[in-house]
Amino acid sequence: METKLTSEPVPNGVTKGGARIVVDDDEDVLSPTDLSELLAEGTKESHEKAENCQFVKDFLRGRIQRELFKKGTEALYFVYSAMEEEIEKNKDHPLIAPIYFPTELHRREALGRDLEYFYGEDWETQISLTAGTKPYVDRIHEVGEKDPVLLVAHSYTRYMGDLSGGQILKKVAQRALKLPSTGEGLNFYQFEGIHSHKGFKQLYRSRMNELELDSETKERLVDESNRAFGFNMMVFTELEEIGKTTEEEVQDAGFGHSHAEIMEGGDINKCPYYAAKMAASGNPTYACQLAMMLLRHPPCQVALAAWVAVLAGFAAWYFI
Questions:
Q1: From the record, what ranges are coiled-coil (predicted)?
Q2: Residue ranges of the domains in the chain?
Q3: Is domain 35-245 annotated with CATH 1.20.910.10?
């Protein structure tokens, strides 16, 4: 994939530094040793564990407590504030500069607007860093100060997930919590500086894969990305515990079955997330398998048919 700079308006471009970054429409020619491929393969197990956290399964089913959604937004605010603070400090680092896209990616201000919607103008006095989120924030500051290259793992894990699965969560939350169609409370999911999510993700992966890294550093980045998934699961677990103590009625949007329920005997090849991911990569075998799975689940036929497209996006941050 060739990356070019031009001042002319083009489709699938993103602005940076007054120019337009053009991503060729051709798919990347990837190698198993490319960082993006190593991260996708090396974090697969952690990703699936995160998907199977009760909080995530409930969220995907539309079973969301408004209070928990607000608490989750708070946690994200502290995580992104830490990450973007450290990225700013290290923006001229040779391994950070190529993936430095503050206009397109940074989420702190968007999260602030969401918190103002939920809590009012004095929202900053009403939020606090919780015990479940603090280790995540502390680790980001630690690597930013001592080992900035590891910020690549944290940036990839969060931003690429936000551009893929995050778009599904936005739709689920908007419907389940009856949030305004104009986007209030969901600014976090709005990437106004990106005109094509797919095109930007191709660009971002290309920039990552061009970083001059030895095999040991790539392994450390995979380890750090797995660690980031672990921190996210700590946040999910804390939210689950908070949910047990709240008396708010769960708003159930009735979005069908959970990931674990559809997993038949734990076989990943029978998992619709995995089949959708493989179908999205162009594998006709898995496209047929996905269709057959829908036919074998009568209660899910209508709901899952609608979910196929979004499930492909949720899993596609591995591939797309």
A1: none
A2: 35-245, 268-319
A3: yes
